[in-house]
Amino acid sequence: MTSTISRCPCGSGLPLDACCGRFHAGEAAPTPEALMRSRYSAFALGLEDYLLATWHASTCPVDLNLDDATSWIRLEVLDHGSAGERGHVHFRATFREGRRWGVLAENSRFVHEAGRWFYVDGEPSMERLKPGRNDPCPCGSGRKFKSCCGLG
Ligand SMILES: [Zn+2]
Ligand SMILES: [Zn+2]
Prior knowledge:
alpha+beta; SEC_C_motif; 4 helices; binds zinc ion; 20% helix; globular; 4-stranded antiparallel sheet
C-alpha cells in the first residue's frame, strides 16, 4: 500500500514529493497547469492553507470548510495555456461522496504576480455520474465498475 499512498493524487504517476508536494512545500509552480494540479492534490489531501495561499486576493474566500465526505478520485486536464501574465486550465475532476459519484468541470483563470501563479476564478459545472455495473470505472482504472470501485 505504501506506493499507492505516496503516489501524487493529481494522477501524474509520480510520487507526491516529486510532483505537487514540492509546490505544497513552498516552491513556485512554474505554469498554471502545475498550479492547478497542485491545488487539486491539495483538495484531495485537505491542505486548506495551500488552497488559500494560491488563491488570488481579489477572489479568495475567508475560509474553505473542506468537506471530508468528498473524495477526489481522478483529475483530467483537457486544455491549458498561458499568455503573458494570464493563464487558463480546463479540467474535469471526478469525485465521490459515499456511493454517489460526480464530475466537476471548470474553465479556471490564473494570473501571474510577483513570481507566482494564482487561481482567480472559473465557471464550474457539476454533473452526477451513475456508473452501471458493467461501465468503465469512473476512477479511470480501465476496469469495470463492478470489479473496481463498485465492489461491495
Ligand atoms: Zn501531482
Ligand atoms: Zn475504480
